[in-house]
Amino acid sequence: MIIDQYTRLYGVMGYPIRHSLSPVMHNAAFLERDLNAVYLAFESKDVEAGLQGMRGLGIKGMSITIPHKSGVVPFLDELDGLSENIGAVNTIVNNDGRLVGYNTDAMGALIALKDKVDLLNKRCLIIGAGGAARAIGFVLKEYGVEVSIANRTIGRGKALANTLGCPFVPLKEIGVVDPDLLVQTTPVGMHPDHNQCIVSPDVLKQGMVVMDIIYNPLETRLLRVARAKGCLTINGLDMFVHQGAEQFRLWTGLDAPIDAMTLAVKNALGKGHDRD
Ligand code: NAP
User: Fold this and answer.
1) From CA 17, how far away is CA 169, in angstroms rounded?
2) What is the 8-class DSSP label of residue 139?
């Protein structure tokens, strides 16, 4: 790869950021498509300053991650319809200084789920009420799935349930829901806390579909227990790659090299690139 005076700059902004595999994934995509572009990780607590830098230096696109997905919204010039409805942005496109926000988490999750499950008339329990839960809840409701929300902080969980027009269930009572599909969206069980699991094994029934949107480790404790109980399990890798593929398309206008992106992330997980 040659970096020169024409190289276009992209990145991810969050705090903390050193666990992110977005740089590995997007740089693999740029390389595969032979684009003169590079993608870096920016660790910042200050969203407003970060976006000023993006405008001022002509950074072409930015992924937005924890904890800024909602906080970034007031500083953007425009939101697309989906991110406006969700109230969270994970992607910014810089159109000659005009910053436009999108949410590709929703589409990434939907593609990952539809690849493995027929969603028609399904009942889904979403664990969590943060940015990812909002995006997934919104897109599943649009798709006609019957959604319920469970969350640690009751006020936040109820607020999301109200927004989606669906029931809220306290975390301790999720056993009564008996969903076809359970989607785990909290960081519980993520590296380095491999042994944590937010769902009691009694909740998991044979034939249930269990998706954990964590991709590090690829098989969380929740998925391990679910697999042992005869559930169909889906890890967070496909969602991660598909949300990234949608970002790549928004930034470049090209189809994303999904296989190269998936391989890059898998290799990085194997080599511990997420641990520096
Ligand atoms: P967020 O907005 O900060 O929301 C975090 C959610 O997790 C909240 O509902 C929070 O509950 C809950 N939570 C956090 N720690 C908890 C704990 N110890 N016990 C119980 N609940 C806890 O984060 P986010 O953007 O939604 O992301 C959440 C996770 O999804 C992260 O691990 C992220 O890496 C992953 N993710 C994956 C993808 C992918 O493509 N695979 C995409 C986006 C996000 P409270 O309301 O009680 O605080």
Assistant:
1) 32
2) H
**How many angstroms separate the CA atoms of 57 and 51, rounded?**
10
Cβ neighbors of 7 (< 8 A, separation 6 or more) are 36, 37, 38
AA letter at 160? L
For a mutational test of ligand 1's pocket, the pick from 15, 24, 66, i.e. the residue with the most ligand atoms closer than 8 A to its C-beta, is 66
**Token code pair at residue 258:** 């999904």
| Angle between helix 258-271 and helix 237-252 axes, rounded to 10 deg | 130
- Verify whether residue 69 is a known catalytic residue: yes
Q: What is the pLDDT of residues 211-244, one digit of tens each?
A: 999 999 999 999 999 999 999 999 999 999 999 9
The partner residues of 181 in beta bridges, in order of sequence, read 124, 209
What is the reported pTM?
0.95
Q: Which tokens hold the place of 270?
A: 């194997």
Termini Cα distance of the chain:
23
